[in-house]
Amino acid sequence: xxxxxxxxxxxxxxxxxxxxxxxxxxxxxxxxxxxxxxxxxxxxxxxxxxxxxxxxxxxxxxxxxxxxxxxxxxxxxxxxxxxxxxxxxxxxxxxxxxxxxxxxxxxxxxxxxxxxxxxxxxxxxxxxxxxxxxxxxxxxxxxxxxxxxxxxxxxxxxxxxxxxxxxxxxxxxxxxxxxxxxxxxxxxxxxxxxxxxxxxxxxxxxxxxxxxxxxxxxxxxxxxxxxxxxxxxxxxxxxxxxxxxxxxxxx
Length: 251
Fold this sequence. Notes:
This protein is mainly alpha-helical. It has helices spanning about 1-15, 25-40, 45-80, 80-90, 90-115, 120-135, 135-160, 170-175, 180-190, 195-205, 210-220, 220-235, 240-250. α1 runs parallel beside α3, α9 crosses α10 and α10 (about 195-205) packs across α12.
């Protein structure tokens, strides 16, 4: 049950990193088959139990690889331009995570199927037992995931540090909403000296609104919106909307 819970957390983490809100059907397709296999393959003693133990752990290992494979497929086939700009910054993490996921499989394969320690030598047998119980590759993988998650949301901590009062509502909103756009806008505005109104215009641009919709949303004229956009372009060192979006998500 603990293994199923851990796998469910990994699946939820993957959806969070892809900025997708999973439906009950998506979670069911990802977790239910895995849970059934885990319950059917609970290790038992004996010669047959060794293979069952291996399949038990292999199922969980392949679940990790499956999450990474789904993320790669989403990046290639379903991600929007903005999502790709955001995920591009994590390419190194995905590559490292994939290598470590296969290292976990290799480690489990060796320790379960091929490692038969000589119990007449207590030092070697104890050392190999220690390694088999620690799942070193898996622990490193989880540390890498935790570090990447911290880096992803560290800007929210910077919002609290830079704006403990004036922008507390923005920081709180970004921490509880489905994405972290609000906190990113605050940091980007700090770096490029954008005014409060320019922050509002930038946020609406990033959400895909055109000048007319922005004018309606902020109750100002389209000409005023264009003037704000021009100042944002100048302060950001870009010349058009696409370059602004690209610069924002790469910053």
